[in-house]
Amino acid sequence: MKYPHLTTLLAFFTLGCSSLSAAEFRIVSALSDHMVLQREKPVAVCGWADAGESVTVSFAGQSKSATAGTDGKWSLKLDALATSDESRTLVVTGKDGHKVEVKDVLAGEYWLGSGQSNLAMTVAGCYHFDAEKAAAKFPLIRHYRENSGPAEKPQAEGKGASEKAKANGTPFVVPAPKDPLAMHKLKGGPAGLFNGKVVNLVPYTLRGMLWYQGEDNANTNTGLYHKQLTQFVTRWRTLWQDEVPFAWVQLPNYTSPGEGWPRVRESMLKTLALPKTGMAITIDLGDANDIHSKNKQDVGKRLSLWALGTVYGKNVPATSGLTVLVETSDNIGGGATGDGTGLLRALIECEVANSAICIADPVAMKASSAASIGSTVTLSIGGKGSRLDAGPVDLEVEVISLSDGRFELEDKQSHLASMCGDRFDMGPSAVVRHAGITILLTSIKTPPFDLGQWRSQGIEPSQFSVICVKAAVAHRRAYDPIAARMFWVDTPGPCSSNLKTLPYKHIRRPIYPLDS
To answer: Is residue 492 within 8 Å of residue 340, measured between CB atoms?
Structure first.
């Protein structure tokens, strides 16, 4: 059975509340011909009638009734529906022949999409429009676009209609800049858009929500975006009275001065601490010179993979799976000390939960071994072996486990096996944890060439969101099979490939590439 989907597109809004008024016998605009009702959840249906009028809704063999209040508003919920691609009619009846019919109604999946201009782009503005249009034969996918304008007060009714999805539209044109103050005054600014476009959709039953916005926020007070996005997700879930899955598109690559865009990306990453949230990483999909990148196909694909894997429990390629950060500046195989703190500091600063790093520090290890398992101790971790490092990081950690550090290599053909045989000794070792960051402290620096390093400590590395390795290339034999993605990062250290970060004493300047 194919699952019908419907996406509602909105733009520019903040939060507000609803005020409804009585009118003639009718239902909300989102309940229109060709619509999709959310499957497997009680389905909200609402509208207006005369005060005190009894209203009955019939669909798929069931009937439910409600009585309109003094303001004429009525609402009810149908029992959860099974998935169905059968075209059926929803009938709403009242007194004196009052009747509304909604035709060609399916039962499937309903997602609410919202954001700014990048979400509003039509297929005509994206790559391969002709091919997409020719292949767009999906009669079970339905689309509702809310076309209402801004309003000073919350609007009970919207302006839109459901239709069978199609690849259409006109190429996106960048609008002329507008006076921010004038936009703010326009019917209440962003709140006016919420009043006009969003209020009328509550409490339409849906599966989840998608968000594509943040470009404007990168220009002003970026430090607020984490709080704003957190409150936004929480507030919308409260309005719908349902903790629905919620995902957003992280800002892509784009040439913009200052730190605004990276800061907003960081804020989006931090907001993943909220339950049932996800994020499509698009740093490789943008256009450095065009804020409206044309590659929306891959953006949509990454969001869909998140939904399929996380919301629907399907076996799909990892979308948020393990990210491996490769710290070449502290490459153990290259002679570095393996106790650099560059990435550890980044994990702490960015509050990267479910992450892990291994640091060779016999002093910190010995201090942790003096504590009992499960206890809390303050350690001075790493930063002792290289003058290029920022120095030790003082952390309060929980002691998770202690061991002798010996393990059998899982890969007997690895680079590490060729150097030391089928066993390796990390020396006395400890696993400690700080705010969701797991730290493996070893007495002897250990090249990250074998996953037995983690599994010997009772840790499954593939279950982390992020693992940091101190290597350059040879780690890939072990980590490629479990990694969803891998990034080489630039931190201070003796093996850095960024020659400009290294100190020089006996060299004539200028010289390439230091002074290029």
So the answer is: yes
